[in-house]
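Slide 14.
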Amino acid sequence: MYDTTLFSVAGVVKDLEHPSSFLSKEFIKISNNEWNSDNWLMFNSNYNLFVKLKDVKSKKTFVNQISKKIFDMTDKDFRESNFKARAEVTPLTEVHFDKRLQNSTNINLIYGFIGIGLFLLLLATINYINLTTAQVPTRAKEIGIRKTLGEQPFDVTKAFFLETLTITCIALVISWPITKLFEKTFSKLLPSNLDSFSDWLPLVLFIICLIAIISILSSLYPAYLINRVQISEVIKMKGIGKLSLGSISIRKVLIVVQFVIAQVFVIATFIMGIQMKHTMNSDLGFNYNALINIHLPFKKDQNADVDPFVLKEALKKHSQIAGVSLGHLPLSQGHWGNFVETTADTGLVKINVPFKFVDEDYFNLYEIKLLAGRRFSLSDTSTGIILNKIAIQDLGFKSPEEAIGKPVKAYGKDRTITGVTDNFNTKTFHTEKTGVAILTSKYRGQLQDITIKLQNDPKTWKASLAILEKEWKTIYPNAPLEFKFYDQNIREYYETDYRFSKIINLSTSITILLSCLGLIGLVTISTVQRTKEIGIRKVLGSSIAGIVGLLSKDYIKLVLISILVASPIAWWASKKWLDNFVYKIEISWWMFIIPALATILIAFLTMSFQSLKAAKANPVDSLRDE
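Slide 15: predicted structure.
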């Protein structure tokens, strides 16, 4: 606690002008005494070392030299546990995306968001191309007249490009307020410092290039088709519906591509939802319901010198409080690692495990299952240790009962195994369960958190929190009371996964909307072009259901093809995402059938309205113009 020493302000550092992973606000010189530690065996997530190299090219040589030094200092101890330590460095420019560091951002998620944006753009572009090509017959006479008046194919192509460019620019202008509305509505899904982005030049260049690319891609194929229109055909034709441009196959391919993208999103959303439900509802090996976590004050002016057991005993006096415990949380992002060693028939066995310092009420509060032995008592502070099942197996014990009473060495002291717990998750489902060593402690520096168990009835929580606030102000009058429910804490550890899942959900809605809008447009144009055919069929006795089936079956076939194509792609993408979890669901066939049926139903309902309208039309009206 540096605030127990009086310091003088030697300088003021200018605030960074842009978002950064370098969040330090106060800088204090490390004393020479603190540099003299010779403990190379402890693993702690609280320390960072910054090194400035004279030459970036020398990074590999530097890492090898430091790794050799670490190896020389630790080999004697680590060799016995078949463990080897080495150094690794991360450039400051890459810290934000380095998964080995805490509070980093997974760059694969960024790539995922870019991919989602590209897919949505592709869907919009396909919609525009399909609707434009479907309207080519209606514009055939216009193009025929323009060609008669001397326009060349290049002029027609240029006109189509400028038309598309104008529509794209209008869409860009409309999208700006929608983007701002999206940022406010879905602010929880976006980075908190998104507004801090100040490098506008690359963004402007990107938008200009994007508009140009979209305009070119969206106008090329319609322009190609319109240039194939022969003036003689346009003049001779009696109805624009008789013009055949051979575009149907390309249009079908585009529809299939459109629904393939939509179906991949639908399946991915379904599987991700099941995995996240599995993550939050699975047994973690301990109870986390109705628990409140508070990080105890660590600054002198916030009464950090007060013994935390004073607060614990004050809270235990109230019947509204079901339990209180001090110590490390069972599942957290922190890591205090060290060695546990014992002597077996094969010699010395040494394992490196995370340590948790707790009090004697820890196991009752979290309801961690004890497989053998007993829980901690006050006499175990300096002699007892509790290990989980994985740890005793790694030490060579065949069963929890065999491990009870056996001597081990941990944190530089000889201890006796007093208990063996069942395995529980100390990290998220992204990480495999490991061995854990649990020690009891009375030291404030090791007991940094207090957990309060409330009654099971939520109606009593308001009164319990009022008691907590009263006792807190009495014992820590200068420290703000900041608490979180433990289940909320655990959920926040999966915030990145939840954020990505919600964005996928939102993107799925948009892809389905775009696909359905495209279908509506194509069915509308198709019914207009087939108005007289529908009228003749009705005169000859076709039923409404038959005409609806006639107008819908071709598109339903395309949707079915897209489902067949999308399913293996969705399986691969979902499997890749699930690979980030050690504990995950198994992908099953029904996870594809349900989204497929939903997509077919949505597509049919989308088309049925326009098809019913055409089927119910009076055939006399449709044939009168012939």
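Speaker note: Residues 355 and 437 are 5 Å apart (CA to CA).
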